[in-house]
Amino acid sequence: MKTLTVILVAMAIALVPVAAQDAKKIDITGTWEMTVESPQGQMLITANYKQEGETLTGTHVSEMGEAPLKGTVKGADIEYTITLDMGGQQFSILHKAKVDGDTITGSAVIGEMGTIAFTAKRKK
Questions:
Q1: In this predicted model, what pLDDT tens digit does every residue of 99-119 receive, in sequence order?
Q2: How far apart are CA 60 and CA 46, in angstroms?
Q3: Residues forming a β-bridge with 75
């Protein structure tokens, strides 16, 4: 019985760092300067994120105009879709990324055109 108690206490102590990490919630709300590595070269985008719990909304603003975004933030994982209007046709781009402090690194899936990399830095 004493051995079981020691094992349970050791397991509880081992879980403390995980609980502390979960307590540190990530909030990406704000303005981010994004650099996209497209086949045509680098493209700069301003990403305006609004996070409420795990729900992410906002906009991407670029030379192509402004596009709304919807998605989620779960821990350090971000996933969202923007929808562009290209001459009356709706076109969606799926973004998947990880946040690390004031940096976001990920990729965007542009339908059949493939995947491109992007990074974003929180604007001060």
A1: 999 999 999 998 778 899 999
A2: 6
A3: none
